[in-house]
Amino acid sequence: MRAHSLLISSLRGIRGERPPVWFMRQAGRYLPEYRAVREKHSMLDVIRTPELAAQVTLQPLDRFELDGAIIFADILNPLIGMGIELDFVEGEGPRIGNPIQQRDDISRLVVPDPYENTGYTLEAIKSVVSALTPRGIPLLGFAGAPFTLAWYALAESGKSAQGKRIKELIYNDPQGWRELMEKLVEMVSTYLIAQAEAGVSALQLFDSWVGVCSPQMYRTEVLPYLEQVVTQVRASTSVPIVYFPLGGLGLADLVSELPVDAVSVDWRVSLPTVDAAYHHRFPLQGNLDPVILFAPLDTVRRETARILHEGAQITKPHIMNLGHGILPHTPISAVAEVVKTVRAFRYREES
Ligand code: CP3
User: Is 113 a catalytic residue?
Assistant: First the structure.
């Protein structure tokens, strides 16, 4: 049974008395109880051990009155079953052992069965759902969007941030690009469907690198594959789907064609501005700058209030969140302050 909640009704377009609030990366290194688990277990071990993944997912819910949880995993671990070697290196981030360099590397990628490849996450989902349903708190599942997964599979460097490798593949080997995207579409769709079957109440697609695309590239090389993912997922589950095109403001007109339920927004734009760019189509999630949480608490309160007032001006519901994940060393008191400010807020009657 899925929880009916402020978060899910907001994602479905029904505004409540206040916006729901949750945070991307709400389980993570800013929490001492998370760091304690990570001292004993590697990142991949936590993800692959359902009891640990469930425990870590629930940690922020025991501290803060959040309106949603997100299952603890990463967008990259599902690539392992495709034949990609992944490790998380302390102080560096994800490292791919055998990045795609030529067509053969794409041809040898397999599309794994999600139950075999990521059964551990599906187990963790079931356990978190049984803990959260009595509390009326919904759980989100997620996956990386095909473009962003391709970015990492090619070991594209975040520092160059231009996407030279991925763009060269697109321009120089269009057939190889198509084959890679088709395999990623299949992996992502079946994985999201399996998460819905395991009991999540919503799904989020992270497209963290799509901001490097021109609208032209996005239209022909990215959007068609995203549409395939969303269409396949929709055909087998009715849970709402959230899309997060980080840095993708210039793509808003094209993104507004996607049949998703809601869009997550980074901090670079105001909610009313982006609402217009999306033709008022979507509930919007976001978009407090994660770095504001390092400011004095009255600044945190004031900036949260500003986002709440901007969110009240958009056409569809607003879901309070950050514009990107919570950063390491974020003060816990600041996270608590945002939650408190949102929970005390009420929409006024429209006049
Ligand atoms: O949001 C959540 O609490 C759910 C879990 C989650 C993680 N990563 C855990 C994680 C989710 C939804 C992600 C998504 C993810 N992972 C994205 C998309 C969102 C974004 O940040 O743009 C991307 C690009 C990744 C890939 C990834 N994983 C990177 C670049 C890094 C290194 C950067 C960092 O923050 O260390 C990771 C590691 C990672 N994923 C951590 C966590 C909690 C830190 C791991 C640790 O050292 O404990």
Answer: no
**Binding site membership of 70 for ligand 1 (Cβ less than 6 Å):** yes
Give the pTM: 0.97
In this structure, what DSSP letter does residue 222 have?
I
CB 172 within 8 A of CB 162: no
Of the candidates 38, 63, 178, 343, the residue annotated as catalytic is: 38
CA–centroid distance, 28 to ligand 1, in Å, is 9
Q: Rounded CA gap, 53 and 225, in Å?
A: 30
Phi–psi pair at 268, nearest 5 degrees? -80, -5
Dist CA 337 CA 351 (whole Å): 29
Choosing from 67, 74, 261, 275, which is the catalytic residue?
74
Contact 215, 251 (CB under 8 A): yes
pLDDT digits (tens, 9 = 90+) for 227-256: 999 999 999 999 999 999 999 999 999 999
- The CA distance from 181 to 161, in Å, is 20
**Residues paired with 319 in a beta bridge:** 285
Of 79, 22, 40, the C-alpha closest to 204 is 22
Q: Which atom of ligand 1 sits closest to the CA of residue 206?
A: 18
pLDDT of the residue at 285? 98
